[in-house]
Amino acid sequence: MTASYLVKILLIEDNLAEARLLQEFLKQAQSKEFTLVHVKRLQEALQEIRKDTYDVILLDLTLPDSQGLSSLPPLMINAPSIPIVVLTNTNDEELAIEAVRQGAQDYLVKRQVNTDVLVRSVHYAIERKQVLETLRTVNQSLQSRVDERTAELVKANELNQFKSEFVSMLSHDIRNPLNTILLAAGLLQNNDDKLTKEKKHTHLQMIRSAIKNMAQMLDEVSLIGRADSGKLSCQFSPLNLEAFCRQLVEEAQLNVKEKHLTLVFASFGELTEAVWDESLLRHILGNLLGNAIKYSLPGGQVQFQLIAQEHSVIFQIQDWGIGIPQNDQKQLFQPFHRAENVGTTPGTGLGLAIVKKCVDAYGGKITVNSEVSFGTTFTVTLPLIKS
Ligand code: ADP
Predict the structure, then answer these.
(1) How confident is the model at residue 212 (pLDDT cuts 50, 70, 90)?
(2) From the CA of 228, how far away is ligand 1's center (Å)?
(3) Which residues carry this modification: 4-aspartylphosphate (predicted)?
(4) At what angle do helices 351-362 and 278-294 cross, to 10 degrees?
(5) Is the shortest distance between the CB of 75 and ligand 1 below 6 Å?
């Protein structure tokens, strides 16, 4: 502190003579300028600190409206950053020490006060309080930095866990088709002259479908990646929605026939002209239809309904297959999540995650209604965007 620094003191002292004496001491101080406001009661002091700022409070512990240490808490609550120096008589030094323990910066025994003692005490009280305040803010910012960092680490950890799950699933799911390819290619190479034309055809077919599987999986993974980095945007163009749905049904027929299923498509309502993102629609409906077929029991039925409304279109895909346990329904849209009842039905657990991301990108809604052994209905509502 320099001599030009003006120290504002609030003196709380009911004894006029004592107050005047302290004022005199301060006047004699050479190094600093002090201004002192004198009040006689705690209530007055509280009013004072509300309307003005002070550098230090000198507090007598025997006041008409407050006795002993009970003066400290109201002052410390109302002015937490102003240092307090307690004034005591010779006989209550213990009380003064207790006051320091409770948060006062210093104490002065009245009989022993002189200019030097008073100035030094005020000076140290202010400095100590400033150091404490700085420590408190440093501590606070350290604490919030620690909190932030902890949150970051938790997130990074979750992300790492997700990534390693992703990698292990991916390598597992890629190894299967790769093995198939290696096996079929090996058979073709080593038994070229022994194999019938039909056998060769079967092996080549196996290779083709394994490659198709891998390509699809890579597409799915990259789609999820794009969606996660916010790069999945809609590209609208005019589309005959009903014809598009019929085409999807047509494409699914091969799998439907293999399982002896019936796939029924029906369209309701008047479809007004609108624009659609064909690629997102294909991901959404293709996956839902594929699942309905995959998780149906042989000989069952799958229904695909298109319901046109004024401002939206509802797609409903219903099957009477294995159903989804209640417990799994909550995590259905998480990548890699597969329900406990899938048995040996193949799958990656990525389809529904993609469906959800595409529906979200569209600003639509998806709900599921399912019961184990009874079947499943997925309902997707997408907004109608007029061209
Ligand atoms: P998967 O590749 O395993 O089919 P999805 O992400 O498409 O992955 O689906 C996640 C899980 O949801 C599936 O593994 C299955 O347990 C369940 N599921 C999805 N659709 C159906 C359905 N129509 N019937 C029964 N279970 C389903």
Answers:
(1) confident
(2) 21
(3) 60
(4) 140
(5) no
How much distance in Å is there from the Cα of 278 to the middle of ligand 1? Answer: 23
The residue among 288, 280, 294, 249 whose CA lies nearest residue 267 is 249
CATH of the domain spanning 154-228, picked from 3.40.1480.10, 1.10.287.130, 3.40.50.11030, 3.50.50.60: 1.10.287.130
CATH of domain 237-383: 3.30.565.10
pLDDT per residue as tens digits for the range 179-190: 888 888 888 888
**Which H or E run contains 328?**
helix 326-329
Pick the residue with more confidence: 156 or 58?
58
- C-beta separation of 349 from 295 below 8 A: no
Q: How confident is the model at residue 170 (pLDDT cuts 50, 70, 90)?
A: confident
pLDDT value for 32:
65
Give residues with Cβ within 8 angstroms of 343, minimum separation 6.
Answer: none
From residue 216, give the alpha-carbon distance in Å to each of 126, 226, 301: 71, 15, 26
pLDDT, one tens digit per residue, over 139-156 is 888 888 888 888 888 887
Q: What is the mean pLDDT of residues 102-115?
A: 90
Q: Is the CB of 349 under 6 A from ligand 1?
A: yes
d(CA 280, CA 287): 11
Give the number of other CB atoms < 10 A from CB of residue 318. Answer: 19
